[in-house]
Amino acid sequence: MEDKGASCISTVVEEKRKLGIMTKFGDIIDCIDIYKQPSLDHPLLQDHKLQRKPNFHNVIGESRQKNLGIKSMFELSKDECSKGTVPILRTTKEDLIREQSMLNDHILIKDLPGVHTDNYNKTGCYNIRCPGFVQTSKKFYLGQRITNTSICGGQTIDSFLAISQDTKSKNWWIIINNKFIGYFPAKLFSNMSTADHVGWGGRTKTRPSTDSPQMGSGHLPNNTASYFRQMWFKDPSAVARGPKSNQVYPLVDKPTCYGIKNYGDKRGHNGYYFEFGGPGVEGTQTILKEDLELERQLRLINKPPSKSIHTEFGDIIDCIDIYKQPSLDHPLLKDHKLQRKPNFQTGFGKSSQKNLETKFMFELSKDECPKGTVPILRTTKEDLIREQSMLNDHILIKDIPGVHFAEFFLRPHYAPYYGVAGTNSIYNPHIDSKFQISMSHIWVESGTVESTNKISLGWHVAPELYGDYASHIYTSWTVDNFKKTGCYNLRCAAKLFTNMSSADHVGWGGRTKTRPGTNSPQMGSGRFPENSGCYFREMWFRDRGDLPRGPEPSQIYPILDKPTCYDIKNYGDKGRHYGYYIEFGGPGGSCGD
Predict the structure, then answer these.
(1) Domain membership of residue 253 as a residue range
(2) How many CB atoms lie within 10 A of CB 515?
(3) Which helix (H) or strand (E) is 315 found in, with range?
(4) Do 270 and 310 reside in the same domain of the chain?
(5) Tens digit of each residue's pLDDT (9 = 90 or more) over 78-113
(6) Mind listing the pLDDT tens digit for each residue in 273-302?
(7) Mean of the pLDDT values across residues 124-128?
């Protein structure tokens, strides 16, 4: 039987259509005369005087992350509504039927003040499915499909949202990305001259006795969850204020599934900030499985030590039997004969600058591991979790957004290569967030982009990996350009290489990584190469002749993608003490993606 109410409303909307814009998703956007939009059919709005804009200004400037642009969100990049009209998503009978079933059991009902007058008992709807919301923007429409969303461990997409009252008209304005979309007229409400509750957060809804879905990013608050930043509220003074810790209180009904964490005022780009969300019921079960897998990995990595050394930074160094170190657990190394030292000399002798001694690096000046053991940094569960998120978007992968480089390569037609070396100056470049990396390294690699075998050695500042902003010595490897294999240091046993009997590329230089749309960190010393940049000196490589050679200018070429942020300079052979010498680095900043 036909729903007469649905047919009646659909007919009213049909009469008001002027021009339809078809989106690529099949939605139809109608451009409706602003004075004939459905909301003005409400009995209480018959003599309503349209308010074109509020009597206040936004207090937050444009977001620095412009990932969620208006046109991208609403698919109106080519066709926009004409002057005097507003875009309204066309409503179908099926839309009304689906919405009615939702309103009978609304997600916002929970004995809390709602937007509507009777807690969704008899009034209320979504967007403009019933008369109420007055739209003023000709670029935005409600019910739009969001085409660009955040990727956990990758780029973050955010949007500024606000509900703010015009203290003169008493209308409640909706603001998205600092644009005024429209308002709910004060006449609609029985007791909303002011609000006695405001808030931020997330909710989920499922049928009784079924698993709850994810909320936000699907992660519990730990710097990877969904967030609100630049938070503010208005009190009777009508001045926007950030919520102090003593002014807010959390409501979490299922802490095993979801969490919430208030970080207070983080200042700068973030302002007042909190995170919320979680995996839901099914996600909790998954996390338990993941925890068991992490515990299994930790048992393989952290061997029983003959001695443990605690550093002043809180790290634990385990002295492990050299024949029982984690790498020898690899199936292909079961019968491996340990090689105590290589069958070649280092080439240029010991450095005359003893800045990077083992004892200094690992804080083992007083306590050293006994004979027959090797020092291995103890790995924690948090270390494994942080590293996994980094490997999904590795700094050494070619052609990924947010990665910039200043490097010298040896030309491939001089290959094969059997080694690369250099004495590297060590700095602690400034990093703005835990998602950034700044590194200096040498490397050998072989194979195509899809199957790159690579070993990298150097130092880096990688807060997401170590949980601090210190400089750390590191090595990393992969046999498939970090698609399925690879890790840092000793966090996993290396899968033996498929095509590394020799290398077809070797090099020296630096890289940085940041999230797309954010400023890049410093590289090296943070200065451009002018005798104050980060350097490699005493550089050499080994080719078929198996002798260490310095790279002649004709043999190397620079790879530099952002010369306004970083640079690299080859000084050639500077003679005694320096040998073959390059400088690289820079201040970073707005480098683009």
Answers:
(1) 211-298
(2) 19
(3) none
(4) no
(5) 557 888 999 988 888 887 777 666 655 555 544 333
(6) 999 999 887 544 555 677 788 888 888 888
(7) 65
pLDDT score of 329: 82
Q: Give yes or no: residues 246 and 315 share one domain.
A: no
What does the buried/exposed string (b/e) look like for 132-162 if buried means 16 or more CB atoms within 10 Å of the residue's CB? bbbbbbbebbbbbeebeebeebbbbbbebeb
Three-state SS string across 116-167, please? Answer: CCCCCCCCCCCCCCCCCCEECCCCCCCCCCCCCCCCCCCCCCCCCEEEEECC
For residue 502, the tally of other CB atoms under 10 A from its CB is: 15
| 299 three-class SS | helix
Question: Using CA atoms, how far apart are residues 311 and 309, in angstroms rounded to an integer?
Answer: 6
d(CA 425, CA 510): 12
How much is the mean pLDDT over the chain?
80
Q: Which amino acid is present at 438?
A: S
Structural domain ending residue among the three candidates 352, 378, 404: 378
Q: Is residue 362 within 8 Å of residue 474, measured between CB atoms?
A: no
The residue whose two tokens read 């308010």 is: 51
- Which stretch of 26-40, 375-389, 537-551 has the lowest confidence by average pLDDT? 375-389
Q: What is the pTM of this model?
A: 0.52
Strands (E) located in 266-414: 272-277, 307-310, 316-321, 373-377, 403-410
What is the C-alpha radius of gyration for the chain, rounded to an integer number of angstroms? 30
**Mapping DSSP to helix (H, G, I), strand (E, B) and coil, where does residue 286 land?**
helix
- Number of structural domains, the chain? 4
**E-only strand ranges, 430-579:** 437-446, 453-461, 472-478, 487-488, 505-513, 534-542, 548-549, 556-560, 567-573
Q: Please give the residue that has the higher pLDDT: either 467 or 153.
A: 467
